[in-house]
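Key idea: predict the complex, not the pieces.
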Amino acid sequence: MTGYLLRRILQMVVVLFLSAVATYALLNLAPGGPMSGLRQQAQSTRFRITEEDMIRIRAYYELDLYLPIRFSRWLIGQPNGRIIIGENEYFPNMRIGCNQVIEKEVLNSAGNYETQVTGCQKYIFLRDLEGRRTSAGVLFGDFGASWRLNRDRPVSDLIVGRLPKTLLLMGLALLISFVIGVPLGIISAVRQYSKLDYAVTSFAFFGSAMPTFFFGLLLIMLFSILPKGAGLPYLPPGSSEAVRNYTIPWLGTITAGSTLDRGLHLILPAAVLSLAYVAGWSRFVRASMLDVLRQDYVRTARAKGLFERVVITKHALRNALIPFVTVAVFAIPTLFAGAIITESIFSWPGMGRLYILALGDYDYPVAMALLFITAVLTVVATLLQDILYTIVDPRIRFS
Amino acid sequence: MSTSTAPAQLLASDAILTPEEKMWKVILRRFRRHKLAMISTAVMGAILLVSLFAQVISPFEPADLAVGNYFLPFGARDEATGLVHYLGTDNIGRDYFTRIIYAGRISLTVALTAVLISTLIGVAVGAYAGYYGGWVDSVLMRFVDFMLTIPFLPLLLILSSMLLRNENLIPIPEPILRISGSVMLLDMRDARQAVIIIIVLAATGWLQAARLMRGTVLSLRNQTFTEAARAMGASNGRIILSHMIPNSMAPIIVDATLALAGFIILEAALSFLGFGIQDPVPTWGNMLAGTQTYMFDRPWLPLIPGIPIFLCALAFNFIGDGLRDALDPRLKL
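Result:
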């Protein structure tokens, strides 16, 4: 087991490194990025962006460094200056970037002029990195500074500020869906082909076909806009808490930021998320329960004359929940990453919304941090799944 | 005494009287039994017909702006031409009904093409990996594991934003743009967006199909009929083409139908989040996102495009379920 664990952890590190490389490359290799639009501005006289400004801005986004150097600085915070071991300085003349590129307008095959980089006027060497802002590296828990959303403030501040909101929303939705979804699945499997079973399976179809964004709008319409118009009590349609005090019929004035206010804001997004999850979980539990109920040991238990209740809870359910436990582990990364679409509809200030904002605004340090943490959590969840497998199902052994 | 080993003479009454049914007839009969799947097929048929005859049915052009006629109510009459805005007009005076129909054509084409491409790739890769095993198999499986660590929707968003913002990153041959443009009634520039979304969806969707195909082929490879085929001297290529692929079609077709529902929702979600096909081109997702701001006084504007998304997703789910019952009852849970 120890050997297996060690091997798995080594594999995890490799997979994580590759996924970090892949996501970093995807974000950074594409042209455009944070500099898009600046070139046009540089040419207009109104903004007067000089050549020096461009160099400074490129240095701010580290776009003047070559990609592997940039990646290494992001991942482990190195190199951050001269490499001096003992008395000797190593690689003093290695070119690690270009401060000022030589550009040429070239006529391409389609007959349009395009800008091509043909050379470099001033290379960057390791010594030039001294004095630059360098993070300690993602591996050591430093996600660097945000570029745009919260300019020059640490990414971790942004995450810490938003994580509680996401944890609250996702935690509640997952809790509701476990509490409702699992029993629904069990009952509908035990009473297969009953009216209840048909109701549950139809509901599961409905839930999995219902797009979150449409269901969200529908709920806002039904529980917020219509009752508000009719003078009935309504639910707030967006954000996680109110800015000003507001009055709801029957409930009276609600203080902004109070527990009641937060609770009211939580209901709609949690309901939307729960629908999808309940549908998924009840389907999953039903399938695995049906599978178990067909097994010989269940028939044996019945033949022994055990009460049906004992057969279901002691013999069938415990085995049916084995795959469930291991799949439920993947709620961990979901808890952190939040729900992109639901958070967008209800302008819930959580992690999913943060990711969308970061991607739309080219705030790559923030987007990369979120992707990286989610990837780490996913990999950890996979490992946890394997370990849980051996605990809940002793038949499985890894070697 | 002599024991005869000759078979007893077959009597006419011993013959099997039930006529042999063609396989597709059996499948059709089983499919018909699934009422919801039949209704769904009818609904999808109607939606497909409407989008096929989009130009005939819709009274206006999708990009026509009626200046000043913003937010017209249902059934308003256009004064200049006398045509009816069945569902009114949107915030910049475009006929809503026309746009819904054209959007359907685009959304369905995107989903169908993406499923077709991802299933073809998945079947090819999965069959190869499952049949030959070896390094192709282990590379594929490691790659699938690796892709699973990157969160799915965020990855999709990065891919589509990267490709949509940099039009020349992937050179798309002009004939493809022209054909897809004429199918979706778009000019080449707008067709590029749709093709990019198809590429993004197919690029992330084939993994699932490949895994499924690999699993099925792995179990088929060791069955007796494969051995028999090999004993009769069939080549590997022949075994794959005429034994592996036909025998694994049932789960693949069911999976592809369910993937259709998923892709319809995903495409709409991408558009909704602003990382999909952009506004002048109508899709159900971006119509819903674009009119979301007006939902407090005109809630029907964002709700109407949501209905066909939901209907299509539900219908494809039911059809997939019906096909599962019809093609291979053992798959039913």
